[in-house]
Amino acid sequence: MLVIRQAQLSALADAKRRAFEDRCASFLRTTWPEDHEQLGEDELRGLVRERSARAADFGLTTERDIQRFLNLSALLGHDFEWQPRNEWIVTLLRDSTIPFPGKLEIIYRVLGSG
């Protein structure tokens, strides 16, 4: 019988998380180089972790949706949800009657940057 210990599961989860952070960091550096090239690797990973957690707060869980949220954050500013002019975006993201990824589609359509 195969036995997988908790430490092994944790190591696998850590590797998966690091790979996800690498892909997201690469996405930000490629898509928004002028905004992220000056960040060190640890700082960019921290930004990815923070913004990914915020995306999860809004119910975004797929890698594609999280990357689109990161893109939205880079487009509007990484604190966009606290800016009064973006209140409509936060309201939409919290609206439980609209399924994902429909919310992001609406946001990008209104912003004209789909």
In short:
Helix content is 69%, strand content 0%. It is an all-alpha fold.
Could you explain the architecture of this structure?
The chain is mainly alpha-helical and 114 residues long. It has six helices and no strands. The chain has helices spanning 6-31, 33-36, 41-57, 63-76, 87-94, 102-111. The longest helix has 26 residues, at 6-31. The relative contact order is 0.10.
Number of helical segments with 4 or more residues: 6
The total count of strands amounts to 0
- N-to-C terminal Cα separation, in Å? 50 Å
- Work out the helicity level: 55-70%
Structural class, from secondary structure content?
Answer: mainly alpha
Largest sheet: none
Low-confidence sequence ranges? none
Q: Averaged pLDDT, please?
A: 89
Query: Which value, in Å, is the CA radius of gyration?
Result: 16 Å
Question: What are the salient characteristics of this protein?
Answer:
114 residues, globular, mainly alpha, 69% helix, 0% strand
Topology:
Layout: H1 6-31, H2 33-36, H3 41-57, H4 63-76, H5 87-94, H6 102-111
Helix pairs in contact: 1-3, 1-4, 3-4
